[in-house]
Amino acid sequence: MLIISVINGGLTLILCLSSLILGFGAAYLVWQKALKNKSQKVISEAETEAEVIKKEKILQAKERFLQLKAEHEKVINEKNNKIAVAENRIKQKELTLSQKLEEVQRKKNETDAVRENLLTQIDLMEKKSEELSKLHRQQVEQLEAISGLSAEEAKNHLIESLREEAKTGAMSYINEILDEAKMTANKEAKRIVLQTIQRVAAENAIENAVTVFHIESDEIKGRIIGREGRNIRALEAATGVEIIVDDTPEAIVLSAFDPIRREVARLALHQLVTDGRIHPARIEEIVEKTRKQVEDEILEVGKRTAIDLGIHGLHPELIRLVGKMKYRSSYGQNLLMHSREVANLCAIMAAELGLNAKLAKRAGLLHDIGKVPDDEPELPHAILGMKVAEKYKEKPEICNAIGAHHDETEMTTLIAPIVQVCDAISGARPGARREVVESYIKRLKELESLALQYPGVMKTYAIQAGRELRVIVGAEKVNDKEAENLSFEIARKIQNEMTYPGQIKITVIRETRAVNYAR
After folding, report:
1. CA–CA gap between residue 170 and residue 168 (Å, rounded)
2. Closest Cα to residue 286, out of 258, 265, 300, 259?
3. Quick count: other Cβ atoms within 10 Å of Cβ 238?
4. Which of 344, 389, 391, 388 is nearest to 365 (CA)?
5. 287 vs 231: CA distance, rounded Å
6. What phi and psi, each to the nearest 5 degrees, are found at residue 41?
7. Helix (H, G, I), strand (E, B), or coil: what is residue 334?
8. SS3 state of residue 254
9. Which of 183, 239, 399 is nearest to 252 (CA)?
10. Distances, alpha carbon 337 to alpha carbons 253, 256, 348, 367, 517, in Å
């Protein structure tokens, strides 16, 4: 019984295990099926998402393609527009050239017609000349045939015949002289300028900003200074001049940029020292009296200058301004002497050229009156001088010559270039003006350094007192055409950046050297 029970229990256990195993198997199958469904769902979702991404990428690619295509079409359109503009410009140029060619052809046809007309006239003139020669021969034959006439009648006929021959010969001679004059015009102009310079000479004065007043002894210095310096202060206040009393023996320095003030101070100080009475009241009295004397002297100098030059009818104010030029100088050249020299040069040159010498002399004397005005307006001296001349009713030709002698205004008369040239001759001739050595050397260095800035320039030399600049360039770096352009560029830069009297010649030197040695 026990065995049967055990067997039944084992069978029951086996059945339970079998049921359990079958349950697990069914669960495993269900789980596997669910897992398979889930994986298929994930794959389906992934495929759907991939399809969406693919479509988005395709759309983006299409948009990028359309954008690039639009940009490309825009670039092509711009190029096409530029090409169209260039084509229009070329067509316009072709049209202009065609018109110019037609104009040239028309002018050529007109020239040919004029030439044919001239040839025809020359032929007629030759025929008439032959006829005249024939008539002349006939007259000579008649004179020979009528040799039985009186001597007076034969003489008259011979004189008439010789007169016509003389006229013809004279006209031919005149034409030859005119042709020769045209060929030698430049040489003749130089001769006129040189002859004009040789016939005129003027003294020069050194321009200073100080005047040295010499005294007999240093004791006078104390009297000039006065108690607690009241005398020297009164002198400086009355004259507007700085009075320097230092250890220099027997000398007092008067310093001022206005030369008239320096002259007034010098004369007043001379009177005070001579008189011996030096105090503030006396100083003011003497300075005022001296100023009046200097004004009278200025008028006298102006009148004497006008009389010496033979210039009449000047306004009294213009005469006073001419007198003031005595106390003004430029680069060591006294302004009055310079103006007198320019006046004489203008008269001689105008006479040589057949122009009004008196008018030219008047313009030459007044050309620099703008440098001595009573006030100091912000105007170039040429324009200021022109306005002053207009104010005092000078002729328009003279006013224009004054205003245009530095190209400040346009020249409208033949007197203006004469004044300009004579002003340059007087200021630029050797010895006319003096420069401080430092400024002279500085100007030469500036000239040389200015030319050295250009590429290809190897060396520069300022010669003839800075009136010529020689520039040596490398033959391998600068060709002949570039050398011409370099000379022009340097000249233009000097004109724009530097101030100098006269003119400066720029010579660019380019040479090639081939060197070999025979051994």
Report:
1. 5
2. 265
3. 20
4. 344
5. 13
6. -65, -45
7. strand
8. strand
9. 239
10. 26, 22, 17, 13, 62
Query: What is the separation of C-alpha 286 from the centre of its chain, rounded to a whole number of angstroms?
Result: 50
Q: Is 505 helix (H, G, I), strand (E, B) or coil?
A: strand
Place of tokens 């420069």: 435
Whole-number Å distance between alpha carbons of 129 and 508: 56
Rounded Cα distance between 183 and 508, Å, is 28
> 73, exposed or middle or buried, with CB in 10 Å at 0-12, 13-18, 19+?
exposed
Q: Tell me, what DSSP letter sits at residue 363?
A: H
R_g over Cα of the chain: 52
CB atoms within 10 A of CB 226: 17
Residue found by looking up tokens 């260095």 in the block = 445
Compute the distance between CA of residue 433 and CA of residue 202 in angstroms, rounded to an integer: 12
Name the β-bridge partners of 188.
Answer: none
Q: Name residues whose C-beta falls within 8 Å of residue 245's C-beta, 6 or more positions apart in sequence.
A: 221, 224, 225, 232, 252
In terms of Cβ atoms closer than 10 Å to its own Cβ (0-12, 13-18, 19+), residue 279 is middle
How many Å apart are CA 501 and CA 440, to the nearest integer?
12
> Can you tell me which residue has the tokens 């202009």?
96
The DSSP code sequence of 161-175 is HHHHHHHHHHHHHHH
Nearest to 367 by CA among 348, 379, 381: 381
Q: Specify the pTM.
A: 0.46
pLDDT per residue, tens digit, the chain (519 aa), is 667 777 777 778 787 777 778 777 777 788 888 888 888 888 888 888 888 898 888 998 888 888 998 889 999 999 999 998 988 989 898 888 888 888 888 888 888 888 888 888 888 888 888 888 888 777 767 766 666 555 566 667 667 767 766 655 665 566 566 566 656 655 665 556 555 554 554 444 344 556 676 777 667 777 777 777 777 787 778 777 777 776 667 777 777 777 777 888 888 888 877 777 777 778 788 888 888 888 888 888 888 988 888 888 888 888 888 888 888 876 667 888 888 888 998 998 888 888 888 888 998 888 888 888 777 667 788 888 898 888 888 888 999 989 888 878 888 888 888 888 888 877 655 444 544 456 667 778 888 888 888 888 888 988 876 778 889 888 888 888 788 888 888 888 888 887 766 678 888 888 777 777 786
CA atoms 54, 60, 64, 65: torsion sign: positive
CA distance 105 to 16: 130
Which residues are within 8 A (CB) of 367 and not within 5 positions of it... i.e. 6 or more apart? 339, 342, 382, 385, 401, 402, 405, 419, 423
* Residue closest to 344 by CA, chosen among 326, 329, 355, 357: 357
